[in-house]
Design a protein that fits this description.
homodimer, 379 residues, alpha/beta, Lyase, Ornithine Decarboxylase, Chain A, domain 1, TIM Barrel, eight-stranded parallel β-sheet, six-stranded antiparallel beta barrel, 11 helices, 24% strand, elongated
Chain lengths: 379, 379
Amino acid sequence: MRLTGLETPCLILDRQALERNAQRMTARYAGTGVALRPHMKSAKSIDVARIALAGNFGGITVSTLKEAEYFADHGIDDITYAVGIVPDKLPRIAALIGRGVRLSAIIDQIDVAREVGARAQAEGVVIDMLIELDSGERRAGLIAGTKGVVALGQALHELAGTNLRGVLTHAGNSYQCRSIEAIQQVAEAERLSAVTAAAQLRAAGLPCPVVSVGSTPTATHAVSLEGLSEMRCGVYMFGDVFQSEIFSCDLGDLAVSVLATVIGHRPEMNSALIDAGALALSKDRSTGAPDLPEDIGFGLVMDASGLRRIDGVRVGHVYQEHGMLVSDGAFPFDVLPVGTRVRVLPNHVCMTAAMHNTYRVVAGDSGHVLDSWQRVNGW
Amino acid sequence: MRLTGLETPCLILDRQALERNAQRMTARYAGTGVALRPHMKSAKSIDVARIALAGNFGGITVSTLKEAEYFADHGIDDITYAVGIVPDKLPRIAALIGRGVRLSAIIDQIDVAREVGARAQAEGVVIDMLIELDSGERRAGLIAGTKGVVALGQALHELAGTNLRGVLTHAGNSYQCRSIEAIQQVAEAERLSAVTAAAQLRAAGLPCPVVSVGSTPTATHAVSLEGLSEMRCGVYMFGDVFQSEIFSCDLGDLAVSVLATVIGHRPEMNSALIDAGALALSKDRSTGAPDLPEDIGFGLVMDASGLRRIDGVRVGHVYQEHGMLVSDGAFPFDVLPVGTRVRVLPNHVCMTAAMHNTYRVVAGDSGHVLDSWQRVNGW
């Protein structure tokens, strides 16, 4: 099928760009002793996972139990569920363990650990547990070096339903960085958090085989990997405009876009409408922070090949099913007559992709749709 | 099944609140001579449509062709597709007409009308067309009173593939209003736009049986309906916090919420985490505009019954799968221990509901899940 035969709006995935992005990150970690455990929360697709896992050990990270179940259905048997566990999630986790998946869960509270341990025991399983650390994001996790780390480690080690496997942190604060040097500092803080907590556990005679860190910016720019056992990251597979603005990739690396059709012109407003609005692009807009190179609104507008930018045009506003294209200069109506297909490069691909169930797979600018890959949305 | 047995996050629909909201709007238009044509873009569910259509004539409005096809599959045969038509959409529209659906499309450009007419003729159908008017939203549409209205009407009347049926406008700008008086003014501008254009067409000897307006705020507060034939609105069925802030409903009217579980405490940050983040709530946050009563972030937090607010607590920040609860005063950790279920009232329900495939249907605070209703997302 030709790209031009697709109904719009739809989600386009350039397999060549995906493969390049995956290979670049895999090559960066090959031979370092740090295992790359791709995070599948952005892609949510076994077809993408297979490309990301090529050359790696086969383990993944997920953000929902539905992802865990889906990837297990497709044969992946080493999964880290990287959202704090609560007892209510135990039946599904126990079912995954019962079918042979090595599933690791994360936790940062000793009282919850006791409840989880009791529920696991009641379910007849032992859950591998990682202590969640806060290395600067200020979302969840214990602070490395505090005594709570050892107390939680001791509890996880001793409880009948849990098995202490190590520590995990995520430098989500790297998204606030505006220079590679700043990212390197955050990466070092992320590493130090993990290795400090690991040293605490070991000094207390506790096991800590897993020392896990990761975010796409820190995975891309970290200088020292000393003491780490694994790196987790996900959005690097696709890239997005925001990631390109914080040095994770170039604009030319972006693998995912939304194909849309120009449906109207508003010359008196210097704007045009496309049939991709908030439901096709998400409402995750560029912050337009003064320290970012450019406010790209809800997306940058490219021609249908996805390779050439329509000069100065971006999605400035979204309604449910309309996107409003705006331009800093005179709007290029002649380049974008009604009916024209465009590709929108998303500001934040995790959110944009989540609005779709299917990737239409292309390779570069051949114009052919090679395949359709399903996503596993929901919980 | 009990509400407490549901996996979180999930979308909850209170059928009693939905029925009250639907009946209120239906009663408002009963006997006015203005037909209520519910917009299904928020609900995207035949089960919800049946409740909204009770006491009305049976026609609906949709925002995607997938909705049109889905509702046609469920027996609805009078559908207005209220996003500007382009020729590429013709095959699916022709198929709908071919199976007996009275489908009306909207348009605001004469050159596109000619292409649509030619494509319709090639497909062997005649499409009912409404002229889209801009009554103040500044998104799409012609300005009533300008000569373009008659020119487009003439073209639609004369083209072999199109049938002029009337005019349509949507006062989306009513969302910017901050008083009932302001909404009434916008409603009057919306009405005047439609009746002015209708008068133009009729003065030119053209037919204009349909004079269609609508948005939930204007449908709720319009004073004069003179000259109108139909009212379109959708979000009134569910309500949301934003609509409650602009006088479309009370907080107690809200029919849709997201059930979530508290998964962590951060006493040092006066906050807690729930397992509903950007993918469960959307990133459509409250603007926090100074002229709105309250910045509720990504949602207001209620107890599990959905009826009692947790004082001062809102979703202040979202990550992909984490929501961070914040509070103006001391965070009520004792009321919300880890594992507690809460209900989040969304800022903008159209976007929040779109993140889910299924409504879990309850009735008031009985705590029982009565049913599961599917949504038709996508395009």
